[in-house]
Each structure stands twice: as structure tokens, then as C-alpha cells.
Amino acid sequence: MTVVISGVGGYLPREEVSNARVAERAGVSTEWIGERTGVRTRRRAAADEATSDLAARAAEKALASAGLRTEEVGLIVSATSLPDELGPSVACRIQGHLGAANAVAMDVGAACSGFLYALEVARCWLHTRPDALPALVVGAEVYSRFVDPADRATACLFADGAGAVVLTAGGTEEGLAPIRLGADGRGADLVGVFSGGTRRPASMETVGSGEHTIRMDGRAISEFTLRQFPRMVRECLEDNGLSLEDIALVVSHQPNPLLLVQAGEQAGIPPEKIHITGDRVGNIGAGSVPFGLAHAEATGRLHRGDRVLLLAFGAGMTWGCGLLTWTGTTQGQHSDDPEGDLS
Q1: Backbone dihedral region for residue 130 (phi beyond 0: left; psi -120 to 50: alpha; all else: beta)
Q2: Any bridge partners for residue 9, and if so which?
């Protein structure tokens, strides 16, 4: 049973945060941010916007792109590092917002790799259920609530945004191949929000000492990315019997644009084949890959029959890589903005 992506959508909050605003509190210059990361700007959620709100906006766009009504969705899988609350799931919040009464709803937690984990769950669901209704897969983050503005390692990178895709089963066209996933829990302490759970519940002490903000070993994460990215590309190509010449585009999680281009070069991928969105939206975690797909379609970078590598790596440590043969969407996801603004 072939599974295809039939709709895509992306959403960014309205507030734009410039490098100048970040630099002032992080104790660096605007030039430092640009030269070290390649990020030019990023978005911040409004005070009344939670993760599920961003996710639902992206989901609405993906459903419109697929030409589907909410009652035609049979599964919602959401990926995020930072849910609205410890319970219920973000997926249930999305279901309620959309009114998707026929959908099973669940969250998948694999940090920035979460979207690919969620995508594989949904692909398998449809692959084994020929008569199943389409699936909605969403990645969203509101990192800004958990960033220490004085920590230049994280304040320059992490931002807010969401992306979503609709998966549909059936047809004879190529579509989404099985996704190769992996994890190495020995790196679990390299990046994360380490208080607020059952190990260190919220207290006056944890809040006062800033333990509820993202902490990251930047050097270790960069080394992991540069080591893992080429391996993921090689393994995915081998799994599908392809070479780099067969790949039209790479849509990846965006840790930062400069690191991504460097990792791509080590894997033998020319920069022009890597779809960069992190320069204009920053690192939006599990939202990066689906937002990247929506942005690539909106800017005319996806064409029917294109083979696209999807890659992600995140806290845990976790990673994933898969092959998508682009079959087009029902209604399209287009933007009047030359840079594909999907706000």
C-alpha cells in the first residue's frame, strides 16, 4: 500500500525577533550571530499562543492543501518537545481545535527528530489499514518560553513555529518510503529542559536558578551532527538503491543554517540542494521538516517525481532519515511572498 503526502502546511507567529534584539541580551553582536549561525531572524509566539495553537494553524493549512474536511481525518500524530501542559496530549488539543471527531490522537516524543518518528507511525498505520482515513502529522514548538535570553548558545537559535502534512493511502505512485530511525540515550544530557518533570519537579529552587530553560552543549551537538548527518544520508540512499545524483532536494531539521550546510558538504551534498529555512525562522525543532516541505512547495522547489531526502536529529540523542517521492498536493500551498512567508 503506497502512502503519499497529499497536503502540506506551515505556520509562523506574527512577531519577528531580529538579531539585534537577541544580541542585546545575549551579550554578543548582531554580526556574531550571523557569522556563527546564519540565522537572520526568528518568530515568537504571542502570549495567548501555545504549542497546540501553532500546530492547529499549520494543520488547517495542510488540510486545505489536501482538499480535506476535518471529519475525513482518521489519525492525528503530533511531535513536540514542549507541549501545552504535561497532560493531555497536544494531539488531543489539535483534534479539539479542528473538530476532527473521527481521529485517533497521540503525541510522539523524540525532540527535533519527533516529526520523522511521527511520520513513520502514521505511515505504518495507513500501510496496515487499507481503508483507513487520511492521517495528519504535525510538528510544532514554542521554544521562546524556555529560552534563557542571556545564553547565547540557545537564544540565537531556538524559535517558534509549526508545520504539518497529510498522509493518504492508495494509488500506484511512489510516495513515502519506510523511514530509518535511531537513538543513543548515552547523549541524553547534551541538550534539553532538565527540570519540570518527575526527576526535578518545579519548585522555587528550580525556577529561581533558571533550570526550566533549554541547556545545550553546543560543541557536542555540532560534533554529533557532523558525524551523524553523512551516515544518515549514506544509509538512506543504500536503503532505497539510489545515489546523491538521484536526489532533487534535501529537507532537514535546521539546527542552524551554517552547520547544516557544513554537514551537507561532508555528505557530498551541494548547498543548492539543501532547502534552508533556518535563516528566516531559526530552529523550530519538530516543526522544521514539515515547515520546510510547505515552504519548498510554496516557493516552487518541489516538482512531481522529485526524490526528496528528509532528515532530522535531536535531543536524546535521536535521528531519522527517509525518502519521499513528491507526488504533489491536491490544492497546493502557495505564498505571494517571494520568500514563501507562511505566517
Answers
A1: alpha
A2: 164
E strand residue ranges, the chain: 3-11, 15-18, 41-44, 75-79, 104-108, 135-142, 160-169, 180-183, 191-192, 215-216, 249-252, 307-314, 318-325
Active site residue 283: yes
**Are the beta carbons of 139 and 162 closer than 8 angstroms?**
yes
Q: Is 102 a catalytic residue?
A: no
Cell digits for 299? 516557493
Contact (CB, 8 A) for 90 and 80: yes
303 belongs to the catalytic site: no
> In this predicted model, what pLDDT tens digit does every residue of 3-58 receive, in sequence order?
999 999 999 999 999 999 999 999 999 999 999 999 999 999 999 999 999 999 99
The Cα–Cα gap between 177 and 315 comes to 24
Burial 244-275 (b: 16+ CB within 10 A, else e): eeebebbbbbbbbbbbbbbbbeebebeeeebb
Q: Contact at 8 Å (CB) between 307 and 323? A: yes
Catalytic one among 256, 283, 295, 321?
283
Per the CB < 8 A criterion, the answer to whether 70 and 99 are in contact is yes
Q: How far apart are CA 237 and CA 242, in angstroms?
A: 5
Choose, from 112, 156, 236, 321, the residue flagged as catalytic: 112
pLDDT tens digits, 304-313: 999 999 999 9
Q: How far is C-alpha 216 from the chain's CA centre? A: 18
- In whole angstroms, how large is the CA radius of gyration of the chain? 19
pLDDT value at residue 340? 53
For residues 23-57, one letter each, b for 16 or more C-beta atoms within 10 angstroms of the residue's C-beta and e for the rest, the string is: beebebeeeebbebbbbbbbbbbeeebbbbbbbbb
Helices (H), 218-272: 218-239, 257-266
Choose the catalytic residue: 19, 92, 236, 253: 253
The type of residue at 273 is K
Write the DSSP assignment of 150-183 as a string of letters. Answer: T-HHHHTTB-EEEEEEEEEE-SSS--BPPPEEEE
Q: What is the pLDDT of residue 342?
A: 67
The count of C-alpha atoms lying within 13 angstroms of the C-alpha of 274, restricted to the half-sphere facing its C-beta, is: 27
